[in-house]
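Give me the fold.
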Amino acid sequence: MRKVILRPYFLTLALFFLTSLHLFSQEAAQAEAPEEPAAVEVESPVPNGNPENGEKLFKSLCAACHKPYKRAVGPALHGVVAKYDADFEWLYAWIKNSSELIKSGDARANAIYNEYNQVAMNAFPQLSNQDIDDILAYVELPKPEPVIAQVAAADGQAAGGSGVSTDLILGILSFVLLLLIVILYLVNKTLNRFAEVNGVQLSEDSADRKPLWKAYAENGFLVMVTAIVFLLGTAWFGYGYLMQVAVDQGYEPVQPIHYSHKIHAGANKIECKYCHSSARVSKHSGIPSLNVCMNCHKQIAEVAEETQAMGKEEYGVDYNAEIAKLYEAVGWDATTQSYTGETQPVRWVRLHNLPDHVYFNHSQHVTVGQIECQTCHGPVEEMEIMYQHSPLTMGWCINCHRETNVKVKDNEYYTKIHEELSKKYNIEEFTAAEMGGIECGKCHY
């Protein structure tokens, strides 16, 4: 009998073709890659200023009211040197003590004073002329190019430099699949030849065979075992399904205004109870008023360019557009730095929602129990989008009450109760369960 041998010529050819095309694509991408434009140096209108030192001074003294390229409480400062004809002596006098310059009758100073509703700028007598030069040198720096465009360009170069397109990958996979079909055909043909040589007759007549279902139905033992397995499996999966009813662990709704806990509670370390202040004294943690947001966002109309790029690249979120939604809701005009009086309600989607028959008091846990917010809500400071971290089931609450020791010190309200319980159990520390924390009436009444 003649042997059938499949030599790997096709596979070698395909591998050589893929490697050659990959190298060719890389060379083409490198050849077509645009050269980076040379940096253009712009002469500063404040040649004696140090922008690095000016940035530190600006952020510590001026950033509360001014921005370099956009109006805030005060005007944008970029271009201020040219605006006042490079009159540095006047700028020194204005920045060090604007009120004194206004009282002297200076026309330019009074014009600014009247333009901004007769609100005088803070005095900075501690600044030297050199310090002011440094600040002016910083605010006169050219506005940097948006980081987003650079990130997009970098992504495009990375995609173009890979050298392998999706169509090419699909073509190679199709070729490999065709090769496997040929191999299977040859194997089948070879087996048929073996059977023919050895006198094995291959029959496709199934008339004499008993149907599989009939053979199964006639076997009483198999039928009984199948029925028992089916009933046990139904009970198991049914119980598991019913135990998950109204358990919303992992629930992550999309809110009308995107709010990043990762940026606020994480990067900026804003305490949870600054926004959810009612958690200290109330049953509910409360939804923060938008006025709380505006305490900061009157000045923060745009995030840092690196943060903006990160939001678009990792989460597909335009943080500046979300701040604009906040301004629209509260009726804030960033141009005039004033409220328009036209407000819109924000329909927040509730995230944590216990059944009506369950009583839970935030102040009892936060103020009296001194429980950290992360104990129930998880690592909030790491969440870009807030989600329900814990199952909030009855068993989960009971386990917490059994394992959590009550803080008995520095708590005058419960001092007498703690003393009596310490005598009763002959221990200095006891859990919430030992204080009656797992009695039905504590949470259900």
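Strands lie at 332-333, 338-339.
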